[in-house]
# Entry
Amino acid sequence: MYYMTIRKPGCGPDETQNDDDGAGRRGARPRGRGARKERVLHTRISEQLAEDIRIFADDLRVPASNLVRNVLEEVFTMVDSVSDDMGGMMDELIDEAEGVRERVRRQIRARRERRPMRSRRNSARRRGVREADVEEEFRRDEAAEATARDPERSRRGDVEDGEAPTPADGRSGPKAEHARRPRAADLFPEILGWQPLVLNRDSACGRCERALGAGESAFLGIAKTGLTEIAICGGCASSAPPA
# Structure
């Protein structure tokens, strides 16, 4: 092992002895009033490292102590620069993460505010469909009672009002109209089968043209080429052939 003494300019030769004895004289004051107060550092290095330092110093034509001092100063300067850059980079990453988190929070709040409104619209739509069904059933009952009391009068009244006459079997209203319509298999011969699903948007039955709201169950037609956009209600999917 070797001892190396790093002595900066401004220190007199009397401040240190030979590096081999490892004991330099300390406490000597620098000459001159304007001389800088610098410290002399001693360290042990390997023979190979000492040889490399001498070779580099000879190539640069500078003292070995100056070379070591300059290298150390450059290293610490570079470390300080990297630390400053990393600190600024971390601050930018933290700010960006805060911005992303705030955007996600706003989207979640907006989605929660839209969900009750959408639920209210769907409930109102389903409620309107149920009320229409009740009203239609009430009209069918009234028509059936009138037909039972006076079939001829009922048929004459329908003809006078411009409506289609009541069938001979006594059936009238939407159910009779539903029964008179062709089967789904006859209307859509290219459909191989019907896939049950829950609608995500409003639609209408391709057979009876009944309104189908989002959230209702329906059946989507499957052809040889794949899924189609033809949707029918459950009643039409299971309808029997007309009598």
User: Anything to note?
Assistant: Residues 17 and 23 are 7 Å apart (CA to CA). Residues 11-34 have pLDDT under 50 and may be disordered.
